[in-house]
Amino acid sequence: MVKVMKLHLLGTGGYHPSGRRQTACLMIPELGLVLDAGTAMFRVREHLQTDWLDIFLTHAHLDHCVGLTYLIDVAWQKSIRRITVHAEAEKIEAIQKHLLSPLLFPAKLPCEFRPLGQDYVLPDGGQEMTVVRHFPLEHPGGVVGYRVDWPDRSLAYVTDTMAAAADAAYLEAIHGVDLLVHECYFPDSLHDRAELTGHSCTSDVAQLAAAAGVGRCVLVHINPLADDDDLGLVAAREIFAPLELAMDGQVVEI
Q1: Any residues with CB less than 8 A from the CB of 67 and at least 6 apart, and which?
Q2: Parallel, antiparallel, or unpaired: how do β-strands 25-28 and 6-11 relate?
Q3: Please, which of 174, 190, 216, 253 could form a disulfide with 186 given CB 3.0 to 4.6 Å?
Q4: How far is CA 179 from CA 6, 49, 207, 240, in A?
Q5: What is the pTM of this model?
Q6: Each residue's pLDDT tens digit in the chain (254 positions)?
Q7: How far apart are CA 164 and CA 114, in angstroms?
């Protein structure tokens, strides 16, 4: 019997929290796997199932890493023997120098930092092997995406970049995944704004998902000022039908 992996969408917004969404944080509890550490990081505590956490950061913008400062409470009175934060070396340096400066955060976090290297195999915890790979994306300050592979299924997480359909440099890295979690900050009408800020529009993400041959696409990193109805999902689903808008607290089966 094939075991279903469950991805918990703890934070699905971008830039700053709103009444509907916290910022970027995804989790597979049974693997102790966390993708990004935005303001929704505090929710990790209620989903802990392992005595370790592997947190993979896409980059060091605050809406993706400020939740690291919540780790003291996440781990409080929990039997966690190890918390490892994985990120590019320069992002780790920036976080340690600035976010964790004693003038801003005068406490030691219960974690270790590990620069990204080659493929990383997660502790199996009795599950099948899980391999995490990263790949470069274009965004001011630099960012990476992640692909998580199991023997029989796969997941990709892409945020803070501009989707460019078949021309996207990361198309091959996400090709054929069962689930693509991709940012969608702007509707098509704000394409110029997307180019200026390095973010994605709805139809571009739909075209990318179709070109990459993914099984399903869930949209995250939603603009906190946007009305969800303005994102143009109906038109985008004519390009790629299995497209959906994420909400905080949603659980997606892989």
Answers
A1: 23, 25, 37, 38, 39, 40, 41, 42
A2: antiparallel
A3: 190
A4: 11, 22, 15, 13
A5: 0.96
A6: 457 889 999 999 999 999 999 999 999 999 999 999 999 999 999 999 999 999 999 999 999 999 999 999 999 999 999 999 999 999 999 999 999 999 999 999 999 999 999 899 988 655 578 999 999 999 999 999 999 999 999 999 999 998 876 678 899 999 999 999 999 999 999 999 988 898 999 999 999 999 999 999 999 999 999 887 778 999 999 999 999 999 999 999 99
A7: 31
